[in-house]
Design goal:
Blueprint lengths: L19 E2 L4 H7 L4 H8 E3 L6 E3 L24 H4 L9 H4 L3 H4 L24 E5 L15 H15 L4 E5 L9 E5 L12 H17 L7 E5 L15 E3 L11 E4 L2 H10 L1 H4 L7 E2 L19 E4 L8 H11 L3 E4 L7 H8 L2 E4 L9 H8 L4 E4 L4 H4 L6 E4 L2 H10 L5 H9 L4 H20 L14
Parallel strand pairs: 4-5, 4-7, 5-6, 7-8, 8-9, 9-10, 11-12, 11-13, 13-14, 14-15
Antiparallel strand pairs: 1-3, 2-3
């Protein structure tokens, strides 16, 4: 869309949707309006529905709060990046394209994106409805439960379905916060803590089964069930529909179709759960975990420190992290609990490197992806998912000895942080994995209705 010239029609500022504003954009915007940052925050922003970033408020008719009657922007040229990149990095539907005078004057429409290096046109998908079985004990609220990876998985997966425009029903605890495009069905208040086989497990599975029975189409239209919590949902009645375990980061499995976040974890599960995988290994796939990149941005480093974010646990390598930082004479910031966005993104972006010397076979490691989205190098051990998520000498360093950790800390500032972020945007974001999930959903349905291994046209693109 290099030939786009704005005609100041104001159409894009009136379309439904939200405008995200990064924390780094607050100061110049507030200065342009002769306000303090806090006044700007209080007057013109609120939390996004997913509660992971700030968005601008709107006028009563839904138009941007900064749009004047003359179709001019009160923040220009200090408006958010989302606005500055219209239409080059936007996905503009035909309906709204017809409303924009600038797009109508374009000579040749070009493919669009929403972030650097990622082609974001949602791929077509035949699935008409997806049932998402959520966390059995916690509401889907990542602000309330920032350390719970299962809550994060549920939220990210629902965002993925919204991005793919696939209707979904989320079955979860009361007070869950859903992204756009979904329907919520409450599983009620948990009756005690969930443990496999206990009273709450049985009540939960009974409630899920009854809710599924009420909401399924079961008329031949493509329809899938997603089990987001493994064994908690293994006793449900699926009523003949295929069940998929996406984002398998735990140490077991039960469904006939599975999505692993790394080949390392897939192989570990295959060797650990032989009976559950022996007859269905052909039907699984590997797609990395993913994040909404909006809260993660590169920032200038104001001081020199190393960062560890994770449990205060020997298996996570916290002792090695402390030892490495002490040997390098560089301060180490250890964050074990309560680290929420956007503060977390700022800590990641300003660090010299993030230390992840995990001792067990890491299934994925969300912090590695978060760090790379900020352009920050990752220094980790040389096994597990890190062999797939951290390119040695490019995104960080994979180490096996104290000498290698010491060398990695010294070399971290020499790495290209722009390249680290570019690769992360192309690998660990919703838009990056959306085509792969869409293809896998179709693949599963073809297997389900056409005979499994011998199903014609059951071909899953690799990428």
């Amino acid at each position: 869309m290099n030939d786009f010239q704005c005609q100041c029609c104001g159409a894009c500022c009136r379309w439904p949707g939200i405008v995200r504003i990064d924390v780094s954009e607050l100061a110049p915007a507030a200065k342009r309006l002769h306000m303090s940052e806090q006044e700007f925050l209080d007057t013109y922003t609120r939390l996004a529905p997913d509660r992971r970033s700030l968005i601008l408020t709107e006028q009563p008719d839904g138009a941007c709060i900064f749009l004047t009657p003359e179709n001019r922007c009160r923040l220009h040229p200090d408006k958010p990046l989302q606005c500055k990149t219209f239409p080059m990095k936007w996905e503009v539907s035909p309906r709204y394209r017809r409303q924009c005078k600038g797009l109508q004057k374009q000579s040749t429409p070009q493919p669009t994106t929403q972030d650097e290096g990622v082609d974001n046109q949602p791929p077509p998908c035949s699935i008409g409805l997806i049932h998402v079985l959520g966390h059995p004990a916690l509401a889907m609220d990542i602000q309330a439960h920032p350390e719970d990876s299962f809550v994060l998985n549920c939220a990210n997966f629902c965002q993925l379905l919204s991005r793919l425009s696939i209707p979904y029903i989320y079955y979860g605890c009361q007070n869950s916060i859903l992204p756009d495009g979904g329907t919520f069905v409450s599983t009620g208040k948990p009756v005690g803590k969930w443990v496999y086989g206990n009273r709450w497990h049985k009540i939960y599975n009974s409630r899920i089964t009854n809710a599924l029975k009420k909401n399924m189409h079961c008329d031949g239209r493509p329809e899938l069930i997603m089990s987001m919590y493994g064994a908690a949902q293994s006793d449900i009645s699926a009523f003949g529909l295929p069940v998929v375990e996406p984002m398998v980061g735990y140490d077991h499995c039960w469904a006939p179709y599975r999505v692993f976040p790394s080949y390392a974890h897939q192989h570990a599960i295959y060797s650990r759960c032989v009976e559950q995988t022996a007859t269905t290994r052909f039907f699984d796939t590997v797609i990395p975990h993913f994040l909404d990149p909006a809260p993660y941005r590169p920032l200038e480093r104001e001081d020199d420190y190393l960062l560890y974010i994770g449990r205060d646990d020997h298996g996570k390598g916290v002792d090695i992290a402390k030892e490495c930082a002490e040997a390098a004479h560089i301060p180490l910031r250890c964050i074990h609990h309560g680290c929420r966005l956007p503060e977390k993104a700022v800590l990641l972006a300003k660090a010299r490197a993030v230390l992840m010397p995990t001792l067990y076979v890491e299934p994925f490691g969300y912090v590695a992806a978060e760090a790379q989205l900020c352009g920050t190098p990752v220094i980790c051990t040389d096994w597990g998912a890190f062999t797939e998520t951290v390119r040695h000498g490019v995104d960080g360093f994979r180490c096996r000895t104290a000498a290698e950790f010491a060398q990695a800390i010294q070399l971290a500032p020499t790495l290209n942080r722009e390249e680290i972020r570019r690769h992360a945007l192309n690998t660990f974001t919703i838009d990056a994995v959306a085509p792969r999930y869409a293809a896998y959903f179709d693949f599963v349905w073809k297997l389900h209705v056409n005979g499994g291994y011998y199903a014609p046209n059951a071909i899953l693109p690799r990428g």
